[in-house]
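Hello again,

I reread your note about wanting to compare the complex against the isolated chains. To keep things tidy I'm splitting this into two emails, and this first one only covers the full assembly. Below are the input lines as submitted, including protein chains and any nucleic acid or small-molecule components. They are followed by the predicted structure of everything together. The single-chain runs will come separately.
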Amino acid sequence: MALTNQPVDYVIALAGNPNTGKSTVFNALTGLNQHTGNWPGKTVHLAGGKYTYKGLIFKLIDLPGTYSLMANSADEQVARDYLCFGKPDTTVVVVDATCLERNLNLVLQVFEITSKVVVCVNLVDEAKRKKIHIDFRSLAGKLGVPVVPTAARRGYGLDTLVETISGVASGRIITSPCMVKYEEEIEEAVRKLEPDIKKLVGDVFNTRWLAIRLLEKDKTAIEALEQWLNKKFAFLPGLEA
Amino acid sequence: MIQGSVCTGLNDLLKEVEQLNLKGSLDLNDTIISSIYKKTEIITAEVVTSYGKPKIDWDKKLDDILTSKIFGFPSMILLLTAVFWITLAGANYPSELLATALFEGQERLTDLFKWFHAPVWVNGLFVEGIYRCLAWVVSVMLPPMAIFFPCFTVLEDMGYLPRVAFNLDNLFKKAGTHGKQSLTMSMGFGCNAAGVISCRIIESPRERLIAMLTNNFVPCNGRFPTLIVLSSLLVAGIATFFGATLIVVGIVLFGIAMTLTVSWVLSKTLLKGIPSSFTLELPPYRKPQVGRIFTRSIFDRTLFVLRRAIFVAAPAGAIIWLLANIHIGNASILAHCANWLNPLGQMLGMDGHILMAFLLGLPANEIVLPILIMSYTATGSIIELNSIEALYQLFVMEHGWTWLTSVCIMLFSLLHYPCGTTIWTIFKESGSSKWTVLSVLIPLVISSFVCFLVAQSARLLGLV
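Full-complex prediction:
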């Protein structure tokens, strides 16, 4: 293929709960045929593909579907480590329009790691059938990032999605995601830790997110950080694809 | 030095965390999660409105049947039977057509070689060896796969697999393993190597290993054609496709029972532990994308498996032909090997040629039957094997098969060691040569034991 040898302009990560049609979005954008199936846990590794938009080359990474980024299982850890250490230019979180509430949990967790996010509300056709109405404009306002309604199986909304991704990746669209405020005690501890974390890692990572993980004594996060600090962070498999 | 300072940096941070002395980390995690949940609740309440209930909740109605305590299992078996019946009934005619065409091609090729005055061994190696083996693989395997895969993918695309997991969850829990193993097992029906990779969705290493070690007890698509042909052979002349379908379903259910039994034994012995609980989301049923399914299952699965089979079958065909035509003493190498393996084969209800075929079929299960046919016909007269009747002639009339031979081959094929690709995948996924060796030994011992038991008791009871 012509795309394989050219340098990539932007790297885009695709995150989302299982069964939201993430792989369908991935296939629709890249024209690849990653196996899709209607069951949770189908994608267990990072799959990569490319597409072009207005002459720019975008590399799309399909992360395993996860309900959270708490790294409870191997696939959750793969997704989280990629978002944190892979530093994608933009992260698209695919959410299921028929159960928005549960899906937004992941969105808010992604916000803590990166601010360059596009929320893709997929399966809007199914939501319509179930007589669910979503005010997308208001949702975008509350989240502070662009929201794109899609029905990926039919190709609806994908043009807008591609355009929005390009806007966020290039910095034309400025995002300011809403952050969850925790109890004052936690917030105070975070404020105390943040400057020291900044000294250690610089501006590379989101210090707030790291501070919270440290306060939780999250073993996987501490280990990953240690590896990164030792420059041993041998990068995750699947990226060469 | 740099490394040292980096580590102290991190350690200082961790010390600082200790000094801040917040609540326990578990409590903290809880409050953090509940803050997130509260926020999503507030947002959702403001942007989502539901305008009336949909008229009929088809999902619920379907689930009431497909996952009910009473109808769950029968409907599962019924669906399985339906898929196999469609495969068996539908594959028969195209198989015959393909075989006729391809064996017609063999004669034309032979004519061509004669016209070139090519030496006899060239014709033997390329036409009788390689071409015939390939013709077999294509005509025996292509039609069933082209029917079975789309059927299976339709069920997958609709969202039936999580329901299977839901139904089987209780059984797996009783076996001391993870309910998600039923999902990885279902993937094994397509390909055991893919099934082993899909075990990554299981969090606990103990349960993941059990799922990997038992994945090969469900027949992959490389073995389905063997099972389908042999079951047709078993009922040839007596019953119809339906009889053959029931045999295949029976074999599959036996494989699932074996998966559960071995999992249970492993979780009580080598891999002790309590099953961890999990929540499985039952996704809504979705209308399958029929057009997409057909193209995808033909290109991604059918042709993929076929290509793999052909790449392995071509050299295997050549090797078999050479073994059958190089003589040491008064017999060919093939005959020597088969004779040597024969006592063991007889003990397991099979014969030396059959064991040879299983050994040479290690790289890919799909070529076991073609190799067997090759090795039976390698030196004999060339017959056109374009139908079940011709196979019946070859196996039963010329090589003295009984029903017991067919049954033992089917059992051995179901239970024997995983194919080369799967073994390699298990090694990569588990990262341990010990477990990889066990993943070969456990099924090998079980399959030999089961075949021995069946063969000996059938003979003792005078059933053959």
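For quick reference: The CA atoms of residues 146 and 344 of chain B lie 36 Å apart.

B.
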